[in-house]
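Structure ticket #2291
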Amino acid sequence: MPVSKEVLDEIALSEAEYQLIVERLGREPTEVELGMFGSLWSEHCGYKHSRPLLKLFPTTGKRVLTRVGEENAGAVDIGHGLAVVMKMESHNHPSAIEPFQGAATGVGGIVRDIFTMGARPIALLNSLRFGPLVDWHNRYLFNGVVGGIASYGNCLGIPDVGGEISFASCYSENPLVNAMCVGIASSDKLVKAVAAGAGNVVMLVGADTGRDGLHGASGLASRTFQEERELRSAVQVGNPFMEKLLIEACLELAETDWIVGMQDLGAAGLTSSAVESAGRGGSGIEIDVARVPRREHGMTPYEVMLSESQERMLVVVKKGCEDKVKALFQRWELSCETIGQVTRDGMARIKDGDAVVAEAPVGLLTDPPLYRFSVKKPAWLRQVQNSDLSHIPDLRPEECQGALFTLLASPNIASKHWVYRQYDHQVQTNTVVPPGGDAAVLRVKGTGTAIALTSDGNGRYCYLDPYQGGAIAVAEAARNLACTGAQPVAMTNCLNFGDPENMSVYYQLKECIRGMAAACRKLGIPVISGNVSLYNETRGQAIYPTPVVGMLGLIFNVYRHCNIGFRDEGDLVFLLGGDGSPGLAGSEYLEAIRGVVAGRPSIDLGLEKRVQRCCLDLVRRGVIKSAHDCSDGGLLVALAECCIARGRGLEGRWGIDGRADAALFGESQSRIVVSVSPEKEGALRERAGRRGVPLRKMGVVRGHRLVVDGLINASVDEMAAVWRNALPRLLLPGS
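Resolution: structure written out below.
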């Protein structure tokens, strides 16, 4: 019997997709089958609009140990018999409804992706987007999300070491909450997310199953918000203390030879974990929902299969090892029940006792239709890009210092100390460079190696030019790592966009991925994992196209790394890189001071590569004492941040050609502020010249004021006070 449009809307299937299911099955699907198809064919699980585009990313490299899409997360070899495992995912829509639990369970989910592979989680990062904090609802979302991240991560004992936060009106009703986790594992003991070997046993471990999270993948994550349609029951509730037990138990299990594979229950719950694991193993799977432990009475097979209750794992156990696995989990006071087995017939068979409630080919469930569109640049985008910025009045000399303080107080630039002080970033005692710099640095115990981690993205750039904005997101992440002395080796990402069935949005998605892929290839950085979050719209208002890049770098000598702060009196400050023509396009200055979002950001990837390699070389050789990426707010803001970091002043000694606003606050790419002792100036010039990288002297570290002749004469303490207090004042209006 055909289903109603209301039912199809609820599970995010079109009528054409329903008819395709009927055609491929040769019959009408049962209720449970329809729910399973709705989830597995959803955008969140099936990547219907993005999978063809994601093939543009380079995904292989000499250190890469996994294939994208075949495991819970990506892994790279870092030497010493160790691998780093990492991934980033979104929890946007749940966080818009219940910010605390939405963000908390986002952390829990990404952590499970890591320890499921046998890796101990050692670091969390997050990238967040909100509407302006002058609005009470945005403050409510902000406080809830930060509280949820802090609560869950701190309870688990995993340090939150980095991230970024940006604000724009387009995120007011659709905040972005992207969580990243990184773990360490033995490179020869990675656990696969696979169900294989007919007769092997399927066990469900952890929390009992409830009704929370129903239609999370197909409903919340695969369609746009429609005011009050969203139900709070679609948001999961987390228990970090149970997850901590799961971490330890699963890591202990990973050391044995009792299992074939392990998979967490995330989006679409038991449906996706069981069916996708069987798909990877080329097997069938049989599940009896009557054996699933439940915490609510009267749950139907449909609800059990689609529940997204948290802190649950699916373990595929070698036949005969069931008792040993159960005993292990019982020692950790965790439920562990046999709920099914692996079969050889390629079918996903769901039973409720003796009754079969769903039976469909695994290959059909995991093979949604893919959509490709031929799109052109929207007319509105051409108009925005071609805006004539020359009509904007330049800054008069007496206005420059006021503009600097305005930008230091801008929420996009101001210190995020109020946020990350709520996260425990020193637990596990690996953190060498804490939050607040260009990238976090963590030592790898038992080696002389360190890793550097960052997450970056600029939705405003991608709105103005998706291709260039995508390339800049990758380049800035790599540049931030280079500033610490780390060689970028791999990246993960989270692609946040609006409705892909809108051709303007699809154009943004396609061009952003093309730009990111081009930068990855140029800089030699493979993509090892990722997530796509589409339909980020509320009442027809889409967010900025916001690709977020999480990146890993290697430091081969933990003692040779850099921070952003100027260190010693008399040190010389230089600008490394830059093409000599800073522009205002897409800059924070243009929006914060002039109220304009326009222009066309750009990047020369060839220059970017030379600048990064030069900086990395200088750090490794001990030539430079500090390095700081020049990005949001431009050159003057970067210099101010270098001063604030250690309370050191700068006497600036450079002339300004052309417009003062562009020279001071323009955001042209491929620029790094570095400092050296006077005796190392020659080495700096020699290395920069050898690599063909522009070098410009900025001044001398001196005193406690930032001075640029005739334009700026500001106390470092005053700048620091404005920069540090801006966010708390917005969050506590009237204080």
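Closing remark: The chain has two domains: 7-365, 562-735.
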